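Reviewer 2 asked us to include a model.

Predict the structure of this chain.
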Amino acid sequence: MTEMIPFAEGEKRLDWLALTRAIAAGHDLPKAEVEDVFLYRGNDTLLNRSAWIDGMGIAVKSATIFPANRDHGKPAIGGAVSLFSDHDGSLEAILDFHLVTKWKTVGDSLLAATRLARPDSRNILIVGAGTVGRGLYQAYSMAFPDAHFSVWNRTPAGAQAFQLDCPDVAIADDLESALRAADIVTCATMTTEPIIRGDWLQAGQHIDLIGAYRPDMREADDTAIKRARVFVDNRQTTMDHIGELKTPLAEGVITRDHVIADYYDLSAFQRHTDAEITLFKNGGGAHLDLMVSRYILEAWKGK
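Predicted model (structure tokens):
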């Protein structure tokens, strides 16, 4: 029987730390075969993102992007994830698109933070007060239960709306001073120009970069990239397709060996000293959608 997993009911059965363990275990299996297919009609887009991992199964994440929906009070993005059996190809589950996306995006970064951030981190700065930022607050609160949170947003209204949803989070008025005071900085913005300055970084910090996903997007400047020990979820995605690392590589600011490891070498995700600065670039990918969908289905079935 094909399971139908909606957002609210599906989320009740999930645990952030269990998810990080599932993502880690997924990288012990053979590397995924992945493929993206785009179809267009004017400004509208259909994206099909597919992954197959031997021993785990197949996921096809379909997303529709209809920008004009906003003018009619409708969501601009819709979709679903279809999860297929690795054994016989049967359709095992259809999962809510937004459920998979939220837990994939945030869980990806949380796994790195649990390996790279100092365990005694107490001050966490969230840069960007959007939907992802709210998920980051939930997840990082589980991994660092004694931490204090603050949020900085380009517009004060966005930060104030965030605080209404998360009353324990303080609003940071000045990004530089808030960043200098933080132990962990997790950044999820849509900026194309760097807002995280390397000159602001302090010894012992962990920097988590999520927002950039196109070649023309960056959240951190060259100095930040050079000062940090850099880790990624997937070398190919982050180094060849996303401006965060693609641009400094192309301009000779860093070389490819500046990136220490991706999740297929998870044992290398270690902090050597309390003083070093670590930086993680979250690039996402269909293989992570598959790993997270499999975890959600198993949690849904009570495993």
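The domain at 105-285 is CATH 3.40.50.720 (Rossmann fold). The CA atoms of residues 149 and 169 lie 5 Å apart. We have added this to the supplementary material.
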